[in-house]
Amino acid sequence: MKILVTGSSGRVGRAAIERLLEEGHQVIGIDAAPSSDTRWPSAKVDMRDYGQVLDAVVDLEPKIDAIVHLAAIVGAKVAPSTHIFHTNTAISYNVFQAAKIAGVKNIVFASSETLLGIPFTEPPPYFPVDDSVTSKPESSYALSKLVDEAVAAEFCRWDPSLKMIGLRFSWVKEPHQYNEFKATEQNPELQKWNLWSYVDSRDCAQAISLALNSDLSGFHHFVIAADDTVMAQPTHALMATYYPDVRIQGQIEEHGSLVSSRLARDVLGYCPKYSWRDNRADVS
Q1: Which residues fall within 8 angstroms of residue 280, CB to CB, at 6 or more apart?
Q2: Residues with Cβ < 8 Å from 149, sequence gap 6 or more?
Q3: Is residue 245 part of a domain?
Q4: Any coiled-coil ranges, and where (predicted)?
Q5: Angle between the N-to-C axes of helices 81-102 and 140-158, in degrees from 0 to 180, rounded to the nearest 10
Q6: Is the four-CA dihedral 140, 146, 152, 158 of positive or negative sign?
Q7: What is the rounded CA–CA span in Å between residue 202 and residue 174?
Q8: CB within 8 Å of 125: residues ≥ 6 apart
Q9: 181-to-170, 212, 279, 282 alpha-carbon distances in Å
Q10: Choice between 62 and 225, residue whose per-residue pLDDT is larger
């Protein structure tokens, strides 16, 4: 396929492009700060400007087959909340509308685990939380992702031949960042906000590839997380300390994640390949 990747210079964007190139796809990247990597063409595009986005999507020849939309302000506290909401929703609408004009029917975009109720000031209804939980945005960032999903659902209602898949990525980490988990091991409170969940950027790329190649139609969303937590402590010990009253629904392994990707596993075939434990000889 010929695939346009927005936000191509980010953690997920870099990993996704690496995988898509390995699979033989042609990739074009667009970003506010495009990559200098010469293995694929990149362009600087202000994603907030619909005209620039439309030009990037429509003017390509031959036309693109799919879009991987990753461009966004990532995180709830990295900018003023109003700026985050306005920017993210505008960017996504610009991409979705430009895709509609260009006739692109295969769109995969970055949603977020924040829709599960992060930072869980109120405990979730059960463990592990999954795609069945009613969306509960607790920040302007999370709200922007809920709007993205709602807009995608309506675009798909308007056009039954359209596929739009929102991947609710957990806390994305690259391998060189795994040392950051050492602080959390000494103080579990630091990562309680997302139930000690994470996902390797390379597994995000796997999920993107699977979503692009799936034969689904309409709008779908999937939680994408690692199978384990960021903690050396057993998961049941964490639950007993911090969430003693939350009902356990299904089996949870010794270090099993409290954020479940089971729907992605069952529907897309997603299977996390990478764990921070593989890089730590001192983990018992």
Answers
A1: 178
A2: 111, 115, 135, 166, 219, 221
A3: no
A4: none
A5: 20
A6: negative
A7: 8
A8: 133, 246, 247
A9: 15, 31, 12, 13
A10: 225
Residue 258, token pair as written in the block:
């409290």
For 190, counting Cβ atoms within 10 Å of its Cβ (0-12 exposed, 13-18 middle, 19+ buried), the class is middle
Query: Is 150 within a domain?
Result: yes
Domain limits at 169? 2-174+198-228+258-268
Burial 97-130 (b: 16+ CB within 10 A, else e): bbbbebebbbbbbbbbbbbbbbebeebbeebbbb
Q: What's the whole-model pTM score?
A: 0.95
Which has more pLDDT, 250 or 81?
A: 81
Instruction: Find out whether 210 and 268 touch, Cβ atoms under 8 Å.
Output: yes
pLDDT band, residue 284 (cuts 50/70/90): very low
Total domains in the fold of the chain: 1
Decide: 94 and 47 in contact? Cβ < 8 Å. Answer: yes
Token pair in block for residue 134: 């009613």
CATH number at residue 99: 3.40.50.720
CA angle 6, 194, 174 (to 5 degrees): 45
Give the span between the Cα atoms of 31 and 24, in whole angstroms. 22
Q: Does some domain include residue 44? A: yes
